[in-house]
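Response to reviewer comment R2.3. The reviewers asked that we include at least one raw input/output pair. We reproduce the pair for Chorismate synthase here without editing.
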Amino acid sequence: MATASFLSSRIFLNGSRTEGFGFQSSDLRRLSRPPVLISIRRPPPRTLEVRATGNVFGKNFQIATYGESHGGGVGCIVSGCPPRVPISQADLQVELDRRRPGQSRITTPRKETDTCQILSGISEGMTTGTPIHVFVPNTDQRGHDYSEMSKAYRPSHADATYDFKYGARSVEGGGRSSARETIGRVAAGAIAKKILKMLLGTEILAYVSQVHKVVLPEGVVDNETITIDQIESNIVRCPDPEYAQKMINAIDAVRVKGDSVGGVVTCVARNVPRGLGSPVFDKLEADLAKAALSLPATKGFEFGSGFAGTFLMGSEHNDEFYTDENGCIRTRTNRSGGIQGGISNGETIYMRIAFKPTSTISKKQNTVTRDGQETELIARGRHDPCVVPRAVPMVEAMVALVLVDQLMSHRAQCELFPINPALQQPITNGSLLMPELAQ
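Raw output as returned:
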């Protein structure tokens, strides 16, 4: 910098005054630099991409549900299903029949057969590995039942929040907030349940453990031996006959008054392999909680000892380890609910999901219109006085979807190379495979 300043000063002092600024034109040419070319590139035009959020669940075994309560139909598209899995329409229909409306006097009287159609992804009774499309038509819509609700919001329903978010909504049947959306989940869950059963012998069973103030006492049902026949032996899906009748009576009492009640669904998953779940954001219980709480009308989730565990000390709550007669490391108790550190430990997984009372009731309630005017509303339409009996297959489906998704993730990461036999067990056991898959 000093040298440059010195040269510039000399040129200025020694230059001819005839040039007007103390330097000659030759000096200017000597100091000039080649011209610098600056190229300005215009950025490519931006494109606005809108992603339809909230309709897809899962990472490896992925489902997308579609349709609305009073539209042409509902369904799902399953992506990532392994090929060569024997699946039929009957496999799906069994689960859909458990979910469908009009089953008994304690469910909605809407009459739908919920007959499913498999439109793609299955050939000659086997999955092809390509997307599976399942469609169920709506056949018993009554849009005129919702005329009052097009003007006023149902208290505690999604009517208002859909308007707040989108500025528009499907009035008839609640649109996507309707429980008919869960048809796609149950259909996809049926596929997931069959994969788990065939591959691992995993069983997923849910049942009603509470309706309003009727609570099934702890220990009345053995989660290790409970069967689907016990659960399906009555219309409320409580495996204990005595308490089942009390629950039915509780629902009947509010049904005739045009009111509703809530309850709790307990779900158990047996023969779940070790190792499912990943720290820290993909913990197994975190995925199960999201899956369960994505169902309509859910208000709470707990697994293992849940909130009751907060009343215990560590010495009381800890599940002590032991080695069984087969040399397998087990826990003497199961307050962890089959999950420790977000990873399954091989014990039975159990959880409880709370459902609120159905918000659409035929009793007069105070509310406001869409333009903010206070008014009274008596809702019409056909709705469950208690959602928990029909929620049972929905809960099972969501748990199955999580377990299959986590199973595929585990095998892709942890069994790509040979396992450490001193600490790990292979997830799959060839002896558990059905003949169709063992070939």
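The chain has one domain: 56-414. The longest helix spans residues 388-414. Further pairs are available on request from the corresponding author.
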